[in-house]
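Job type: complex structure
Entries:
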Amino acid sequence: MIKFDNVSVSFPNKNGKIVHAVNDVSFEIEDGEILGIVGTSGAGKSTLLRTVNQLQLPTSGQTIVNGNDIGNLSGKELANVRHSIGMIFQQFNLISTKTVAQNVAFAMEIAGRSREEIKQRVPELLELVGLADRADVYPNTLSGGQKQRVGIARAVANNPKILLCDEATSALDPETTNDVLQLLKEINNKFGITIVLITHELDVVKKICQRVVVMNKGEVVEIGNVFDIFTNPQHEFTKTLLLHTFDLDLPKRFTQENSKPLVKIVYNGDKAEDAIVSNVVKQFAVDVNILHGKIEYINDRPFGILIVQLIGEQDEIYKSLNYLSKNTYRTEVINERN
Amino acid sequence: MNETNYSELVSNLLPAFGETLEMCGIALVLAIVLGIPIGVLSYLTSGCIVCKNKIINLLVNLILNIIMSTPFVILLVLLLPFTRLVIGTSIGPEAASVPLGIVAIAFYARLVESNLHGVDKGVIEASVAMGATWFQIVTNVLLPEAFSGMIRGLTVLAVTLVGYSAMAGIVGGGGVGDLAIRFGYYRYQTDIMIITVLLLIGLVQIIQTFGEKISKKVQK
């Protein structure tokens, strides 16, 4: 378990001004979960992550990993803890003068593994990340996605309990990002490694994280299940952050027209699987004109937004609105009506 | 009076060439053996990874700067007592190798240090995150990653040393450069000067080409 206990980090920037990168952050990360930390750049998420393996010392507060106060460790103890925490990076950070296999082997040499063990395990690790045939090439000849796979093989070489991902997919194209995320999920499933993932891409969080921490200006503004935060953000910052994900813009002529109600239906979870819209059409004398919509699956649970126009008699429209608000997560009329 | 005796020239040239190679060779070996560790020390103590130490860093830098800023001719003379202590004599190519070696060490230490600073910080950080000791980082990451640049540095150093070795004549070091000065310059034998200079140019060319080839070869 990783526990941040009132962690603050500040350091002088290039102009000598003190920057408070992380401000009094406290939360816990459970064993075996995939937790995402999101925020805009400069939110302090990377700095916070780096206190987990003492790449960064907290100015005050403690980062506790499996009972060890990381900030207090040094020498052999610190090295041992670091062997049990893997880390992957945005720029991959592979040693360019070592081959793929040597890069992975180096991680095991550092941890003091025997030659035989290394010889046996490196091919297994490369097999795991799908690069068995590239063992003897140098990183320069690999694509970004392949480099990150080597990074992952290296990071999990010593069977760590924790894997830290510092913007691990930010330098990759969407398709490669998916592959890498899939691999991370697989590793999490297979070995039960706790994965802490920082990113500015909400898509990444949506795809593999169970819980998410939203950071802004060095502080945690929101923490919770990915589904809850995505479908029902509480903090203003989270709402703005999410705005781009669920961006449903309609042409002005629809919102200005006020004779027909424009209804935004938000539905989630089990209700999303019921045929609510067609029920409305069947039960009431209205026509439903779907103008815009989006359905996302977060942790395999659907979350959708539909924007529809209801056409019919005032009375029937009222009844169908009533039905909708009872049977969906949220229903609101978004055009101005007189 | 100025007629050139070519057989005398050839009999002078060959040993002179040998002396140049000897002086530069010894200095290069010294630069590799001592310059690299000093360069690494200077890099490490500057606070890049693990063993930041301002005092040692200041001291190392001061010594390097003193050696590099003193004109070589002066250094040659200043080091005479030291040379006598080490070699037992202050005359001859071996004796000239001492000041040449000291300049080479300082020069190469600086080149190594600047090459180390060019190594991607992210790669070093990844090794720190894996729990590597500073020694593992130096031997497995820093030196291999900087290797290609260090070979290039060695080429620059070798070329510079060939030039410096010409001044070794002052302490009787000999060498091709010395020959050029003694025969070509002091005795107004222009043809000898030209021949010796051409020889030096050829030597430098060979070093440069060879160095670049190796440097390219080790680059991954």
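Summary: Chain B touches chain A through 19 residues (CB under 8 Å). Chain B has one domain: 6-218.
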